[in-house]
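Worked example 3 (structure in, sequence out).
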C-alpha cells in the first residue's frame, strides 16, 4: 500500500486542539463535526475527517509519485503546532520569524482546501473553455484566418501567454499546480498586516471548519459591486483564522495588534463567519452551539 496516500486538507494536528475535553476515559479523542445543512452533529476522531486520496500528489513523466507538497505541508504543520503550544497559547509576542511562520500556515490553510480547489477549477475553467473555442476555430480556419489566430499569444507556438495545455493542467489538478505559488505569493503580503489575537474563556470558544481562513470586508457594501470582493489593498480587510478554541487571529490594517479578550459579540461574529463560509462542515469542541452563531 502506498504511503502518504491519505492526505488531510485540514491537518489532524490542527484539529487536535478541538477535541472534546469531556470525552469518556476509554474513548479515542474526538471533535464534534456539524453539517452545514444542520443535521445532527457527530463525534469524529481528527484522523478520520477532512482527507482525500492523493490530494497533493504530483506525478512525474514516469508516473512516479512526487510528495514534495505533502512533505512541505507536514513540516509546516509541525512548526505551527509548536508555535501554538509554546508561544501563542501563552500569549507571548511573536518575533519576526514566528510571525512569518504563522502567516505561512494561514496562507496554506486558505490555499489547500477543497473549497479553494473547486474555486480555482471554476476560475480557470472559464479561460480554458475560451481557449478551446479558439483552438476549434483554428482547426477549422483557412490559411489566412490561421495566420491571424496564430498571432494570438495563447495559441501561437512562440507566444508569451499561457498555453492551452498549461491551463488544462491547472483545471485538472488545481492544488498540485497552484498551491506552492499561492503560498509563496500570499505569505509575504500577510506579513504587512497587523496581527491581533482574540482570546476567550467561553466554554465552546471559537469554532473551525473545512475552510477556516476567512477573508471579509465589513465596508465592501459601500463600494461598487465589481470592487466588493475582499482584497489586501483595502484598509478594512479582515482575515480571521481560528488558532484553537481559545484563540483566533485577526489580520487587519487597522493597527490592531497583540492579545485581547474578545467580547461575546466579537466571538459570535467570528463564529458566524467561520460557520457561514464553511464548505460542508464546521467543528466545535462541544456539542453545544449558541443560536446566534448559526443564523
Amino acid at each position: 500500500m502506498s504511503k502518504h496516500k491519505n492526505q488531510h486538507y485540514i491537518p489532524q494536528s490542527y484539529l487536535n486542539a478541538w477535541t472534546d475535553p469531556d470525552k469518556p476515559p476509554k474513548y479515542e479523542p474526538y471533535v464534534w463535526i456539524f453539517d452545514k445543512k444542520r443535521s445532527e452533529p457527530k463525534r469524529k476522531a481528527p484522523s478520520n475527517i477532512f482527507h482525500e486520496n492523493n490530494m497533493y500528489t504530483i506525478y512525474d513523466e514516469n508516473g512516479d509519485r512526487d510528495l514534495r507538497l505533502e512533505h512541505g505541508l507536514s513540516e509546516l504543520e509541525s512548526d505551527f503546532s509548536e508555535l501554538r503550544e509554546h508561544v501563542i497559547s501563552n500569549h507571548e509576542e511573536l518575533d519576526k520569524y514566528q510571525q512569518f511562520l504563522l502567516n505561512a500556515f494561514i496562507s496554506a490553510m486558505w490555499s489547500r482546501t477543497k473549497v479553494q480547489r473547486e474555486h480555482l477549477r471554476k476560475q480557470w475553467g472559464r479561460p480554458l473553455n475560451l481557449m478551446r473555442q479558439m483552438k476549434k476555430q483554428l482547426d477549422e480556419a483557412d490559411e489566412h484566418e490561421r495566420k491571424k489566430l496564430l498571432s494570438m499569444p495563447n495559441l501561437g507556438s512562440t507566444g508569451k501567454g499561457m498555453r492551452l495545455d498549461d491551463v488544462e493542467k491547472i483545471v485538472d489538478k488545481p492544488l498540485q499546480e497552484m498551491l506552492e505559488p499561492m503560498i509563496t505569493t500570499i505569505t509575504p503580503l500577510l506579513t504587512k498586516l497587523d496581527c491581533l489575537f482574540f482570546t476567550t474563556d467561553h466554554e465552546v470558544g471559537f469554532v473551525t471548519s473545512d475552510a477556516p481562513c476567512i477573508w471579509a470586508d465589513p465596508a465592501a457594501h459601500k463600494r461598487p459591486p465589481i470592487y466588493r470582493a475582499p482584497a489586501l489593498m483595502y484598509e478594512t480587510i479582515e482575515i480571521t483564522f481560528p488558532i484553537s478554541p481559545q484563540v483566533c487571529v485577526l489580520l487587519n490594517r487597522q493597527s490592531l495588534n497583540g492579545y485581547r479578550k474578545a467580547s461575546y459579540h466579537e466571538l459570535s461574529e467570528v463564529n458566524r463567519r467561520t460557520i457561514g463560509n464553511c464548505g460542508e462542515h464546521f467543528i466545535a469542541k462541544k456539542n453545544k452551539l449558541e443560536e446566534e452563531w448559526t443564523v
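Notes: The helical segments are 12-15, 68-86, 96-111, 114-140, 143-150, 164-172, 174-190, 264-276. The two ends are 45 Å apart (CA to CA).
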